[in-house]
Design brief:
Blueprint (H helix, E strand, L loop, with lengths): L6 E5 L4 H12 L3 E6 L6 H11 L6 E5 L5 H10 L4 E4 L6 H6 L1 H21 L4 E7 L22 H19 L4 E7 L1 E3 L18 H9 L6 E4 L11 E2 L1 E3 H16 L4 E7 L5 E2 H12 L5 E4 L14 H7 L7 H14 L20
Parallel strand pairs: 1-2, 1-4, 2-3, 4-5, 5-6, 6-11, 7-10, 8-13
Antiparallel strand pairs: 9-12
Helix pairs in contact: 1-2, 1-8, 3-5, 5-6, 7-9, 9-11
The site of nicotinamide-adenine-dinucleotide (NAD) has 26 residues, from helix 1, helix 5 and strand 5.
GO cellular component, one term: cytosol
Pathway: Carbohydrate metabolism; galactose metabolism
Family: Belongs to the NAD(P)-dependent epimerase/dehydratase family.
Length: 359
């Protein structure tokens, strides 16, 4: 069976990482069914994926479904036989998860339980799950290897930790299941076309979208959280990874599952290199030609000084490695920002009302 015969369910495929991955899946010849409740995304993103996919757009289908609605989800599983699921759907804002823990546990856990149950019922036993480096908590050393002890510092992180454990239990109970848990480090950048990218609602929590919004004049300045970390320049160090590299990691994971991988494996998706806040700012200024005004303030509660991935295992076992560096990440982030300073929505039409549709 070639990838052209394979049908993939992509939950959360209208979102930032899901939309980029859906495009690569289509280009690799897969049939892609996106389900998304559009809670943190818009249908326009899927329309743009369809446009970029060209001749493959006929293989793209979209259903506006909330994973918590098991009846609706069941209808999709009854209609289509999926060869594998890539599960992105979930809420992801750390601060919001602290304020609304029940919402996060309900959305991320109930949604996943429904999905796993229906997969079981319909004999779909191949799964790639979006986990996060957040499950390393505040790592005691770097680089983070996949066998580091796991912990969570906030409710969002706990949902990732719990879901990882639930999936491990499901796989243990039925060895037919083959699962890959992918722990993303810090996804940034956008598709080279500038047509799709990250479009956070409200004030961004993460560094790169914040810098982008300062560059296009939506925000006045970047607050640098902490200048006294034991790092090269005192600011926090993270492992930023181009979203196209990240998307490609999912293709590598599926390839592994379709060539007979068994059990439940976990891989970091990062570059293995750390970059400081000030280095990101300098790279973005070079890419955009814009000055990013800075305000130096205290550390953000719960932040680690330095987090980056060990990529040894993923390189060895999935034959995947990130290709892009910080300059390319900033170039593509800026290209997306310049073309879409207000994201997918015009500033005066931030609301949208879309019903389910197919392409
Ligand atoms: P995103 O918010 O852009 O995409 C998530 C999508 O899931 C959104 O389109 C949202 O509408 C949808 N969704 C949420 N709850 C749903 C539900 N109950 N039913 C149906 N759809 C639902 O986020 P992203 O950055 O693309 O992240 C994708 C996944 O990767 C998430 O699980 C996230 O936790 C994880 N992750 C993201 C990062 C990051 O920094 N972006 C880092 C590590 C892990
Ligand atoms: N930072 C600033 N100013 C800002 C935003 C961030 O200085 O306005 C700094 C942070 O202190 C940190 C770095 O920029 O040093 C990166 O911060 P992000 O919030 O972009 O990323 P984090 O690594 O702190 O956290 C993100 C997600 C987590 C996830 C983690 C790894 O928010 O949920 O990436 O995937 F676990």
């Amino acid at each position: 069976m070639s990838s052209t015969d394979k049908v993939i369910l992509v939950t959360g495929g209208a979102g930032y990482i899901g939309s980029h991955t859906a495009l690569l899946l289509l280009e690799a010849g897969y049939k892609v069914y996106i389900i998304d409740n559009l809670d943190n995304s818009v249908e326009e993103a899927i329309e743009r994926v369809a446009k970029l996919a060209g001749k493959y757009r006929k293989n793209l289908f979209f259903y506006k479904v909330d994973l918590r609605n098991k009846d609706q989800l069941e209808k999709i599983f009854s209609m289509v036989r999926f060869d594998a699921v890539v599960h992105f759907a979930g809420l992801k804002a750390v601060g919001e998860s602290v304020a609304k823990p029940l919402l996060y546990h309900e959305n991320n856990l109930i949604g996943t339980l429904n999905l796993l149950d229906l997969m079981n019922e319909h004999g779909c036993t191949k799964l790639v799950f979006s986990s996060s480096a957040t499950v390393y908590g505040q790592p005691k050393s770097v680089p983070c290897t996949e066998d580091f002890p796991l912990s969570a510092t906030n409710p969002y992180g706990r949902t990732k930790l719990f879901i990882e454990e639930i999936i491990r239990d499901v796989q243990k109970a039925d060895p037919e299941w083959s699962v890959i848990l992918l722990r993303y480090f810090n996804p940034v950048g956008a598709h080279q076309s500038g047509l799709i990218g990250e479009d956070p609602r409200g004030i961004p929590n993460n560094l790169m979208p914040f810098v982008q919004q300062v560059a296009v004049g939506r925000l006045a300045e970047l607050s640098v959280f902490g200048t006294d970390y034991p790092t090269r320049d005192g600011t926090g160090v993270r492992d930023y990874i181009h979203v196209m590299d990240l998307a490609d990691g999912h293709i590598a994971a599926l390839r592994k599952l379709f060539t007979g991988a068994k059990g439940c494996s976990v891989y970091n998706l990062g570059t293995g290199r750390g970059t400081s806040v000030l280095e990101i700012v300098a790279a973005f200024e070079r890419a955009s030609g814009k000055k990013i005004p800075l305000k130096f303030i205290g550390r953000r509660a719960g932040d680690s000084s330095e987090v980056y991935a060990s990529t040894e295992k993923v390189e060895r076992e999935l034959h995947w490695r990130a290709r892009y560096g910080i300059d390319e990440m900033c170039r593509d982030q800026w290209n997306w920002a310049r073309e879409n300073p207000w994201g997918y929505r015009a500033p005066d039409s931030m609301q949208q009302s879309v019903e389910s549709s197919r392409f």
